[in-house]
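Hi all, long-time lurker, first post. I run a small reading group and we've been trying to get comfortable going from sequence to structure in the token notation. Rather than ask abstract questions, I figured I'd post a concrete chain and ask someone more experienced to write out its structure so we can walk through it together at our next meeting. Sequence below, copied exactly:
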Amino acid sequence: MGNYIVIVFAAGIIIFGLIRKIDVFDAFSDGAREGLNTAVRIMPVLTALTLSVSMLRASGAVDAIGQTVAPLLQTVGIPSETLPLMLIRPISGSGAIAVLKSIFDSCGPDSNAGLIASVMMGSTETTFYTITVYFGSIGLKKTGCTLPAALTADLTGMIFAALTVNLFHLF
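-- Answer (accepted) --
Happy to help. Here is the structure in token form:
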């Protein structure tokens, strides 16, 4: 049954296009061309972002920042094991998944740190990547208030992830 969903969906799009008298192939070709142009435009920025994340992790800067901020965040109930996740998550989704896996390996997925890390992953965004893709695809260079607002939302999501998990552990 599941194999036929894609076929039915594609057939539905073609039938809808025919009813509306739209040249479906030309519309598809135009969309594919526009998507390829967007990918080419944002490729240099994504390459620089990926390189930056790799350099930060390899240099040990993430660990150094984490050790500095750990005492402050522990007062809110955020375990020190989740600090690397908090630093990497706004920058890299794949890096955050690797950090999440290391938290699961060292603490366990059902531990307090594992649960908080899981909720953090679901309640935050890869802010820099998202801004790079969206702003880069339309050629904007200045983010204005977008970056501070998005990072504030990420921090809020992380703090409330810890507060919520700690609250539910009481019951």
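A couple of things your group might point at:
The two ends are 42 Å apart (CA to CA).
The chain has a mean pLDDT of 87.
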